[in-house]
Amino acid sequence: MKEEYARIIEAIGEDLDRPGLKDTPARAAKAMQFLTRGYSETVEQVVNDALFPSDSSEMIIVKDIELYSMCEHHMLPFIGRAHVAYIPTGKVLGLSKIARIVDMFARRLQIQEQLTLQIAETVRNVTEAEGVGVIIEAKHMCMMMRGVEKQNSVMKTSAMLGAFRDNAATRTEFLSLIS
């Protein structure tokens, strides 16, 4: 990857011998590996058996989970927050594991629509929840720094599964609790 970054830097017309760029290919490669570390993680590793028996059948919400991802179309960042809710059926997931699931999928080349669905389906599969709701709000650098250059635009996506899709009252409760 380091050599590829060196080629890109030269292709834009820069001099790799310039002091400020001397170690940039190595730093850029290391940064890209960090930004896309979600490819080296699995759901099993992230959850790490942190699923616990519970009599709770009320909605559980983790809101304002910050996320950083990379647009798969332009490889530019999008930055935002996720709100994740589920209704347990006999087991609950360790609190930090929700954020770790968000990070695992966000740290891949993504489109926000797919990211939202991947998080929802994973939480449903892991917890066997009655329903799962996920909303993501994010600002996309590919829209802010290039193209239409709209600085204040925010994209919102949602995935509603099970009770969150089938029951308007459940969906409304979720939406009111995150606003």
Characteristic terms for this protein:
five-stranded mixed beta sheet; 41% helix; 179 residues; GTP Cyclohydrolase I, domain 2; two-stranded antiparallel sheet; alpha+beta
Topology:
Blueprint: H1 2-11, H2 24-35, H3 43-47, E1 51-53, E2 60-71, E3 77-87, E4 91-93, H4 95-106, E5 109-110, H5 112-127, E6 131-140, H6 141-144, E7 155-162, H7 163-166, H8 168-178
Parallel strand pairs: 2-5
Antiparallel strand pairs: 1-4, 2-3, 3-6, 6-7
Helix pairs in contact: 1-2, 4-5
Structure description:
With 179 residues, this protein is an alpha+beta fold. The chain has 2 domains: 2-35, no CATH class; 50-178, 2-Layer Sandwich (GTP Cyclohydrolase I, domain 2), CATH 3.30.1130.10. The protein is 41% helix and 27% strand. The strands form 2 sheets. The protein has a 5-stranded mixed sheet with strand order 5-2-3-6-7, with helices on both faces. A two-stranded antiparallel sheet has the order 1-4. The longest helix is centred in the C-terminal third of the chain and has 16 residues, at 112-127.
Q: Name the strands of the widest sheet in spatial order.
A: 5-2-3-6-7
Q: How helical, in percent, are the residues?
A: 40-55%
Question: Which regions have little confidence, pLDDT < 50, spanning 5+ residues?
Answer: none
CATH topology of the largest domain, by name, is: GTP Cyclohydrolase I, domain 2
The major sheet is characterized as: 5 strands, mixed
In DSSP terms, counting alpha (H) and pi (I) runs of 4 or more, how many helices?
Answer: 8
The number of domains is 2
CATH H-tier superfamily of the largest domain: GTP cyclohydrolase I, C-terminal domain/NADPH-dependent 7-cyano-7-deazaguanine reductase, N-terminal domain
Oligomer classification: single chain
N/C terminus separation: 42 Å
Report the top-level CATH class of the largest domain: Alpha Beta
Q: How many strand units?
A: 7
User: Would you tell me the overall average pLDDT?
Assistant: 97
